Amino acid sequence: MLHIIWLIFIVSAFIASIYQVVVLGQVDTFSDVMQAISAMAKLSVEIAIGLIGLLAFWLGIFQVAEQSGLISKLSRVLAPLLTRIMPEIPKDHPALGSITMNMSANILGLDNAATPFGIKAMQDMQTLASDITTLTNAQILFLVLNTSSVTLFPIAVFLYRAEQGAATPTDVFIPILLATSASTLVGLIVTCLVQRINVFNRVILIYLVGIFSLLFAVILYFTQLAAEEMALQSSLVANSLLFSFIVLVLVVGWRKGLNTYDLFVEGAKKGFDVAINIIPFLLAMLIAIGMLRASGVMDVAVDGIASLIGLLGFDTRFVDGLPTALMKPLSGSGARALMIETMQFHGADSFAGRLASVLQGSTETTFYVLAVYLGAVGIKHSRYAVGCCLVADLAGIITAILVSYWFFA
User: Fold this and answer.
1) Tens digit of pLDDT for each residue in 15-73?
2) What's the rounded Cα separation, in Å, for the pair 29 and 24?
3) I need a surface site. Which of 195, 284, 333, 385 has the fewest CB within 10 A?
């Protein structure tokens, strides 16, 4: 599936480039596309190199945590849920712990920790695969949850809105959480249906009710805070929890009589190899994305949607925010730039500016996540993972548009 989408990206960029040159007279388009290829090739290496230190550090910490037995204890928090939605993972398997850590880091918005934990989870689940070149059901569901995961503190969006002069930068907080929650829930349900997992299992329902109740409580508390105070408190909570975890791991390992230094170094050595193995996968995906942007495919898609919506007689105001929605699954930095551009052109407190902010916070960079995680374990056959991830993205986009009309129209 992924190789077909990759080819479609490149062929679409080629056709769009021909259209730009022949019909619109944009003779520099082919040059722009080739420059985009060079830029993305450089970026793929820079990303991988940037990951080396983080991967080495967190894999080192994880090595100590596993040997001390701490990860197996932490995994018990979500084990009843994970063993039901991922039945092929045995109880007490190391994968449950790394999945728990990844999901916790994602919820707290700690991307620098979530990626190493996610890679470790993919590697742990890979040990259960009968075919190491093909994604397992558990890995697919894990990817869907990652590309649609709820982040409680979308602080970057608030700060960008404040920079652009928004009167109340945090007014998009609840819409973002509603949209990203819908994305996660739809992604979970669709994937479970494909895998024939009973989502109405009593344990699953209890966990979902508990998780969304906690989410609602967090919403109630943080909606009372100003943007600066929210940023301060969320950063304090998230980073203090992470720092506490690091200290806890090392202290527990020491009390168990382990040589925590040697264990850390042993685990950290794996970080370099993992980061280097990611490069070819990142290179392939980022080049295709760069070609799409430079060839004008995004503009053609947005204009086409606007024309269709107009012909059907529906409100077309949401179309101004669509570039951010279409770019987010492809490129986080590209979507961020489009969000800022939308706020600058229409105003931070305009409908389009708020919608772009909600869209930025409600979906994930799906193809980047797939490239990194599949590359980390050398997966060649993604099966139906891309389809399920994109369905979750679509649910997030549609919900973002609907709740933006509800809150801001």
Assistant:
1) 999 988 988 888 888 999 999 899 888 888 887 887 788 888 888 888 898 888 887 77
2) 10
3) 333
Torsion angles phi and psi, residue 133, rounded to 5: -95, 0
Cα angle: 171, vertex 167, 333; to 5 degrees: 65
Our count of domains for the chain comes to 1
Give the DSSP H/E element, type plus range, for residue 295.
Answer: helix 260-295
Flag whether 21 is in a domain.
no
Backbone angles phi, psi at 348, to 5 degrees: -65, -30
Residue 75 reports pLDDT greater than 90: no
Cβ 219 vs Cβ 175: under 8 Å: no
Spell out the alpha helix ranges (H) of 223-259: 227-255
Amino acid, single-letter form, for residue 48:
A
pLDDT attached to residue 227 = 60
Structure tokens at 407: 């809150």
Residue 388's identity, in one-letter code, is C
pLDDT tens for 151-186 read 777 777 887 888 888 888 878 888 888 888 889 989
HSE-CB at 367 with a 13 A cutoff on CA atoms is 24
In a domain, 15, yes or no: no
